[in-house]
Amino acid sequence: MQIKVLLFATLRDLVGTRQQMLDVAEAATINTVREVLIEQYPHVRDNLRVALAAVNQEFAAANTTLHEGDEVAFFPPVSGGEPTYPEVFQLASEPIDHDALIESITTIDTGAVCLFSGFVRGQTSKPGHMPQVTTLEYEAYEGMALAKMRQVADEIRERWTGVQGIAIVQRVGRLSVGQNTVLIACASAHRDDGCFEAARYGIDRLKEIVPVWKKEIGPAGETWIEGQYRPTTD
């Protein structure tokens, strides 16, 4: 049977392609595909061994059985019903208009909005990162990223029932120092209805489960920044 294989971030760079069609045996599993790829690209063995997997835009275990036409993605660790209040989920290739986003998630009974906005920094002493950066390149697994943004919003609503509108926007492509990279905004009727805590949870959770990666580019070269989160069977 034939499946589509997608590779992201480090894997994409090492293999030299993002997408390929692969012929595998009936009842093949994620592990089967992983081994086929290792045989084709032995120089990527170590990266493939630790890569996360998704089938049709959902995280998948090693023993997940595949079917004809499935979309299987490998990538490094990264992340209910109709909403009553407005929600915005975007992968944006252009600068984020903060005022427009706030306006889009507020209603007549909104009295507070807490907004987290991340930016490209030019230097850092944080371990594992380049000390000087001129550019960041962001890549996303688009369909899955938007689905996981919605999951983050659902989790926020379960924890903070006073939260009204929610916006989660991630920039993609190449960004220069000082440009905005990500935005999390949570609205509520009052400032003590959970909007502060919800916005902090939103950015932390986005960095865990939303499949977006960044490449740091600077005078010393370039490198993909990979996370530590690994989903469990729960």
Number of domains: 2
Fraction in helix: 25-40%
**Which structural class is indicated by helix and strand composition?**
alpha+beta
Summarize the main sheet: 5 strands, mixed
CATH superfamily of the largest domain: Molybdopterin biosynthesis MoaE subunit
CATH topology of the largest domain: Aldehyde Oxidoreductase, domain 3
**Overall outline:** globular
Distance N to C terminus? 29 Å
Q: What radius of gyration results from the CA coordinates? A: 19 Å
In CATH's first tier, which class of the largest domain applies? Answer: Alpha Beta
- What order do the strands of the largest sheet run in, or round the barrel if closed? 2-1-5-3-4
Number of helical runs? 6
The number of strands is 13
How much beta, percentage-wise?
25-35%
Low-confidence stretches: none
Overall pLDDT metric: 91
How would you concisely characterize the structure shown here?
The chain is of the alpha+beta class. The chain folds into 2 domains: 2-75, Roll (Ubiquitin-like (UB roll)); 87-225, Molybdopterin biosynthesis MoaE subunit (Aldehyde Oxidoreductase, domain 3).
How would you describe what is shown here?
The protein is an alpha+beta fold. The chain has two domains: about 1-75, Beta-grasp domain (Ubiquitin-like (UB roll), Roll), CATH 3.10.20.30; about 85-225, Molybdopterin biosynthesis MoaE subunit (Aldehyde Oxidoreductase, domain 3, Alpha-Beta Complex). About 25% of the residues lie in helices and about 30% in strands. The chain has six helices and 13 strands. The strands form three sheets. It has a five-stranded mixed beta sheet with strand order 2-1-5-3-4. Helix 5 (about 140-160) runs antiparallel to helix 6. The chain starts with a strand and ends in a 9-residue tail after the last strand. The mean pLDDT is about 90.
